[in-house]
């Protein structure tokens, strides 16, 4: 197809008209790509960036975290007597987990608390003096395997839905959900997006979904206490309805030995018979 030019008798094709436009478009895209290339920071800028993104250390606590493992007979009132002794020493009990062991009649209590390390020996001696107590183990400075179980119900409809629902329950006991505020399709898309995000977040922490309802899910997570606390903080924007934590359960790690360590240990405790007295 040809077009008439301003000069009489000269015809210009449409293909020749598109050529400058294509060149202009490619030149603009090339300039934009050059602008998107990140600038290499200087040494001062890199150091300031690292300092800015470095997390601040937590404030110092008054006491240290102590862990005791108590072996006692399975009798009524043992837990209350243990709690009374720790309370008399001004210990703040973080968690107390008691359960049966594989041996009939023997129970094990794992106590995690915060307090002064100097008073732990006094509390330990008083706990050992209890009649049903067999032994008290101090795991404060021991390498441990710690685990805690979390069961948490999280909203998949968003925190706004439950916040508005609670406000309506306070105003009127006969609460009826208002479907005019949010359409059904939009609500379904938001619920699916929240459910997908919670599933991915739970998988990253090694947990799993135990129950899925129309507007909430129940999550199970077994991990270290500080890791569970981090997971709870990340789930708060979704809207936590209720949560239950079992408390800390701990066992000491077994030491690792190799053949070289065994030989050195045998040589250390080997006794020369020639150095012994006669007889």
Automatic annotation (TrEMBL):
Domain ACT, chain residue ranges per copy: 67-147
SUPFAM superfamilies (alphabetical): ACT-like (SSF55021)
GO cellular component labels: acetolactate synthase complex; mitochondrial nucleoid
Coiled-coil regions, chain positions: 106-133
InterPro entries, per the entry: Acetalactate_synth_ssu (IPR004789), Acetolactate_synth/TF_NikR_C (IPR027271), Acetolactate_synth_ssu_C (IPR019455), ACT-like_dom_sf (IPR045865), ACT_dom (IPR002912), AHAS_ACT (IPR039557), AHAS_small-like_ACT (IPR054480), ALS_regulatory_subunit (IPR053050)
Gene Ontology molecular function, alphabetical: acetolactate synthase regulator activity
Secretion signal, residue range per the UniProt entry: none
Alphabetized UniProt keyword annotations: Amino-acid biosynthesis, Branched-chain amino acid biosynthesis, Coiled coil
Pathway where it operates: Amino-acid biosynthesis; L-isoleucine biosynthesis; L-isoleucine from 2-oxobutanoate: step 1/4; Amino-acid biosynthesis; L-valine biosynthesis; L-valine from pyruvate: step 1/4
Single biological process term from Gene Ontology: L-valine biosynthetic process
Family: Belongs to the acetolactate synthase small subunit family.
PANTHER family named among the record's database cross-references: ACETOLACTATE SYNTHASE SMALL SUBUNIT, MITOCHONDRIAL
Name of the protein in question: ACT domain-containing protein
Organism for this UniProt entry: Lichtheimia ramosa
């Amino acid at each position: 197809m040809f077009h008439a030019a301003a000069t009489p008798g000269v015809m210009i094709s449409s293909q020749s008209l598109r050529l400058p436009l294509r060149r202009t478009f490619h030149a603009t895209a090339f300039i934009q790509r050059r602008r998107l290339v990140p600038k290499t920071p200087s040494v001062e800028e890199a150091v300031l960036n690292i300092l800015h993104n470095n997390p601040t250390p937590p404030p110092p606590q008054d006491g240290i975290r102590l862990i005791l493992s108590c072996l006692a007979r399975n009798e009524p009132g043992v837990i209350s007597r243990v709690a009374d002794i720790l309370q008399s020493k001004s210990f703040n009990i973080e968690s107390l987990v008691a359960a049966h062991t594989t041996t009939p009649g023997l129970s094990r209590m794992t106590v995690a608390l915060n307090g002064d390390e100097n008073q732990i020996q006094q509390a330990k001696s008083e706990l050992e003096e209890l009649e049903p107590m067999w032994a008290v183990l101090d795991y404060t400075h021991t390498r441990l395997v710690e685990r805690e179980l979390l069961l948490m119900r999280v909203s998949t409809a968003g925190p706004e839905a439950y916040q508005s629902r609670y406000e309506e329950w306070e105003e009127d006991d006969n609460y009826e959900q208002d479907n005019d505020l949010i359409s059904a399709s939009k609500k379904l898309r938001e619920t699916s997006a929240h459910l997908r995000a919670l599933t991915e977040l739970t998988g990253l922490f090694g947990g799993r979904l135990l129950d899925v309802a129309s507007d909430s899910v129940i999550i199970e997570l077994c991990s270290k206490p500080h890791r569970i606390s981090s997971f709870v903080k990340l789930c708060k924007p979704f809207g936590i309805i209720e949560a239950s934590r079992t408390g800390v359960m701990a066992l000491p790690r077994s030491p690792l030995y190799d053949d070289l360590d065994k030989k050195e240990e045998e040589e250390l405790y080997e006794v020369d018979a020639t150095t012994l007295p006669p007889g």
